[in-house]
Amino acid sequence: MTYTIQQIADALGAKAVGDTTLRIAKLAEPATAHADDLALAMSPKYAQTLSDGAALAAMLWPDADWQGMGLKAAILPDRPRFAMSGLTRMMDPGQGFETGIHPSAIIDPAAQLADDVTVGPLTIVAAGAQIGAGSIIGPQCYIGTGASIGKNAYLRDHVSIGARVNIGDNFIAQPGARLGGDGFSFVTPEPSTVEETRKTLGNRGDTKAQQWARIHTLGSVTVGDDVECGMNVTVDSGTIRDTMIGDGTKLDNLVHLGHNVVVGKNCL
Amino acid sequence: MTYTIQQIADALGAKAVGDTTLRIAKLAEPATAHADDLALAMSPKYAQTLSDGAALAAMLWPDADWQGMGLKAAILPDRPRFAMSGLTRMMDPGQGFETGIHPSAIIDPAAQLADDVTVGPLTIVAAGAQIGAGSIIGPQCYIGTGASIGKNAYLRDHVSIGARVNIGDNFIAQPGARLGGDGFSFVTPEPSTVEETRKTLGNRGDTKAQQWARIHTLGSVTVGDDVECGMNVTVDSGTIRDTMIGDGTKLDNLVHLGHNVVVGKNCL
Amino acid sequence: MTYTIQQIADALGAKAVGDTTLRIAKLAEPATAHADDLALAMSPKYAQTLSDGAALAAMLWPDADWQGMGLKAAILPDRPRFAMSGLTRMMDPGQGFETGIHPSAIIDPAAQLADDVTVGPLTIVAAGAQIGAGSIIGPQCYIGTGASIGKNAYLRDHVSIGARVNIGDNFIAQPGARLGGDGFSFVTPEPSTVEETRKTLGNRGDTKAQQWARIHTLGSVTVGDDVECGMNVTVDSGTIRDTMIGDGTKLDNLVHLGHNVVVGKNCL
């Protein structure tokens, strides 16, 4: 799949200059770009390295002197960093997941999937789970009992969604992300050393060694729209009500959210 | 499944007052409780928010003025925080795993499972593994060669138990917990920069770049009774003897225990 | 499998003394060694505990007085810590994976596997993936589209290798290691609070709440030879070019490498 400079600029709502019929196969850093790459040189610092590569076209900044850089064409977006979002989306080769329900997937008859949902090989969808239109569930995932996933989700491999987790639209989960583990909550029959020490500001009194009793997790996790979870992220369910993640929030790899946490909107 | 106030109080060994025939469907925080919920208001601070919700019954503290709060019934446990353990256990809806051996599970003929063990879909149990009575192994787990799991274990999905890991009774593992990885242990043919610097208190001498040789892991992991491991926990095997986790210890999500570690009893 | 003291010493290129026909079944720490164990007492401190155990033979240091310790035989390597590498490799019982392609593995017809590759149960190898000679891919792994793994790899269970990840020879991955997640990279339509604050050294100006747009990940991960990744490690793909891990580098459990990172050779 190749695009002309003009097609790319139109898709980004950006200005194209020079020979806008040049065809671009992929993106590259300026110093290592080939002749059919679009070099990403969105600041003067990166533009200086264009001469180390062989790019004929580059994405620059609004008033960049593209001809002085020896280029045949250029794209000049108003906000180059934001243009990267649309540009990388156009060029994303993806994971190559096949569409449709793989025959090795195990889907409970009591699960509800929209017609066009993809479920990858060796993925399990438990009873009562719901998956919205346009969603892609990757390989080897587990979607728990009564869990709900909105429209246009994209889950990569080995993702765990626990029972009754409720997720909005456009959810993205990287490999090994886990939502809906039991909360880490224990209590001793008598006040523990920690409780006693807090209460008395340091005096441990006559507390003795005790075993921990488990406080079971009755809540789950509620996730808004446009949320992304990185690889091996862990989000615990809430004790009584759900742990909450607001619309637009993104969690990086290996982030841990404990039980009962409430995360707002658009947190990064 | 609903319970009367009296049934709940009896199960907890707590005092019930008022109309103890009221039926409870679930637990709730005071401010968001419905009429058939049991509100959890175990301190005056939480009790103040009862009027924001519609609860007719609440779990309070020993001498709470339940009538002054406008309630029809109440449960008054001696140690409300500890009562939460029994109460949440009664109300736990669980993950909804089906019982029995799922036909897609791959169980080596040389594995030994007690009669009533549950093994979830797409789980693998390798040769020589042993699983005790009452244990539930969730979906997509891997139980390694010669591993041993005691009675009444509860493993959720995507759990890894390495070869020869030895686990006591009542073990709980959250999704993606991993026990029995190879220890992180390497050595250089000649003393490395780190060793030389330690020995000479700072003089790096004439050490040179070297490749790392692997010290293989011959031990495994020994886990006591009543241990719980959170999501994506990692516990390495010991080099010569086993890494050890004592009875009653609980590890939160994403905890890492290195090789040869010895963790005591009831650690949290 | 047992070895004589002489066989072990020969394999390590070390000096053997005493009754070198003694047979050794396994390694042990000095204080808990049995009569057919080789005690590891490679410094005077550990040698002091030999009398607490029943070892007849030990691995010591070059000029150790093995007879004074009451031993019948000993191995005296020049660099005892390095000798541990060869010794533990000889004695490693491994995970007991069966060789060959398991019938439950799902291998795309367009994947290329060398003749002697092992693929464990419930593992997926996607289209265009390549796996080199002598490699062992454990159970429940996912090898993505167009990924390439060199010779003699050893992957344990639940490992994720994303699309187009390119790995050299002798790669080792512990359970749940993940390479090739999408990078964590987002941008706002207008300059965000963070950008504005950095630029103005503290003045937030009139920035307003905005949604995050995703910068898609077009690169992947390039991994050199002799690399090891611990359990639940996460390595993100690069945005335009690959994230890089140099030859001989080892990552411990739960290490996270972000997108575009370049890690050198033999890093520990």
Describe the structure in your own words.
Helices cover 12% and strands 26% of the residues of chain A. With 268 residues, chain A is an alpha/beta fold. Chain A folds into 2 domains: 3-91, Udp-n-acetylmuramoylalanyl-d-glutamate--2,6- Diaminopimelate Ligase, Chain: A, domain 1, CATH 3.40.1390; 106-182 and 217-263, Hexapeptide repeat proteins (UDP N-Acetylglucosamine Acyltransferase, domain 1), CATH 2.160.10.10. The longest helix of chain A is centred in the first third of the chain and has 12 residues, at 80-91. The first copy, chain A, starts with a strand and ends in a 5-residue tail after the last strand. The interface between A and B is large, with 46 and 45 residues.
- Oligomer description: homotrimer
User: Cα distance, first to last residue of chain A?
Assistant: 33 Å
- The proportion of strand residues of chain A reads 25-35%
DSSP strand count of chain A: 29
Question: What is the name of the CATH topology of the largest domain in chain A?
Answer: UDP N-Acetylglucosamine Acyltransferase, domain 1
Spans of chain A with pLDDT under 50 lasting ≥5 residues? Answer: none
What's the architecture of the largest domain in chain A in CATH terms?
A: 3 Solenoid
Q: What profile does the largest beta sheet of chain A have? A: 7 strands, parallel
The tally of structural domains of chain A comes to 2
Q: Greatest contact pair? A: A-B, 46 and 45 residues
- The level of helicity of chain A is 10-25%
Task: Kindly provide the radius of gyration of chain A, computed on alpha-carbon positions and rounded to a whole number of angstroms.
Answer: 25 Å
- Backbone structural class of chain A: alpha/beta
Shape of chain A: elongated
Q: What CATH first level of the largest domain in chain A would be assigned?
A: Mainly Beta
Discrete helix count of chain A = 4
